[in-house]
Automatic annotation (TrEMBL):
Lineage: Archaea, Methanobacteriati, Methanobacteriota, Stenosarchaea group, Halobacteria
Name of the protein in its database record: DUF2800 domain-containing protein
Provenance organism: Natronorubrum tibetense GA33
Coiled coil: 271-313
Keyword annotations from UniProtKB, A to Z: Coiled coil
Length: 314
């Protein structure tokens, strides 16, 4: 029996069309992200994020996949690479559900439009996109709250101060990740004592020596060879000291000086709220299609021209 009839095909297409803009599906085994570009009478067009490859998923092949589910389930580990996108898409249907190990035919239990392979638009963003978005949110918050200097923080309400801290932390963390990736790529391009110049600055290869002791046996043998008393370099091993504390009646205060450092720890980030706020800003920018929007665009172009002139002059 072919369950991929006109009604079921229309329902699957409808679920695909309802997937939020920017959301992606992951292939079940290889975890390749892809988005749904369009649907048609005979296919669903998808685009893979890691290669920008477009690929049609044919209705006929969905029917073949459906026939293979005639027994009621298919083990995810048995999926072939070419079948994985079909499995991810069909999991959106009202006719199927996914347990820990299989795709299961279960119309009574399935929830149309939901899938463990579906990643929200907020979560699907790449690290550079997240840095970009967090920086925009932080810049908007600084502008809205009119934060001119650090002294103005004492007049900020607690909720806003918390958001300011969280966004600054997220920008720093994201920028560090992007910077590390850029550093590794630059090291491939930089020769010894070479400098590379960009519009905003200059970088060069720098080498620092980092030393760490060799194994204990080698170090102690070298000391003995030169007549150096071992006691000069032997110290307390903290790991071994903690073991002693755990198995004896030795008190912490006997061997440790204890102090407290008080700091603010970020314990949670509401990515959905951030993304929703970002979409609101994007919608407002998009609405600037009148004279005010054109004036703003002209002003930005003028700023860019002045920056270009200043950089060229230097």
């Amino acid at each position: 029996m072919d369950r991929m009839n006109d009604e079921n095909w229309a329902e699957l297409r409808s679920q695909c069309e309802r997937v939020s803009t920017g959301a992606q599906l992951l292939t079940p085994l290889s975890e390749r992200p892809f988005g749904i570009e369009a649907t048609a009478d005979d296919r669903i067009l998808v685009r893979f994020a890691d290669s920008t490859e477009e690929r049609p998923l044919w209705r006929e092949q969905f029917g073949v996949f459906d026939e293979q589910l005639e027994g009621g389930a298919m083990a995810i580990d048995d999926l072939q690479p070419g079948v994985e996108p079909y499995a991810a898409v069909i999991s959106l249907s009202e006719s199927y559900t996914v347990d820990d190990e299989s795709i299961v035919t279960a119309p009574d239990d399935a929830t149309g439009g939901e899938s463990p392979f579906l990643v929200s638009a907020a979560e699907a963003r790449t690290p550079p996109e997240r840095v970009h978005d967090d920086a925009i949110l932080l810049a908007h918050l600084v502008e809205r709250l009119e934060i001119d200097d650090l002294a103005s923080l004492d007049s900020m309400d607690t909720d806003s101060l918390t958001d300011y801290y969280v966004l600054a932390s997220d920008v720093q963390r994201g920028a560090d990740g992007v910077r590390s990736a850029a550093r590794d790529e630059l090291l491939e391009r930089l020769g010894p004592d070479q400098e590379l110049h960009g519009r905003f600055g200059t970088v060069r290869r720098t080498t620092r020596e980092r030393r760490r002791p060799k194994d204990d046996e080698t170090v102690l043998a070298a000391l003995d060879e030169h007549g150096i008393p071992r006691e000069w370099v032997l110290g307390v091993d903290r790991d071994k000291l903690d073991v002693v504390l755990s198995v004896t009646d030795l008190a912490d205060d006997d061997v440790y000086d204890t102090s407290e450092d008080v700091y603010v720890q970020k314990t949670a980030v509401d990515e959905d709220e951030k993304y929703s706020r970002l979409q609101g800003l994007a919608d407002r920018i998009e609405d600037l299609e009148n004279a005010d929007g054109e004036a703003l665009e002209d002003e930005l172009e003028a700023i860019e021209d002045r920056l270009e002139e200043a950089l060229t002059a230097n």
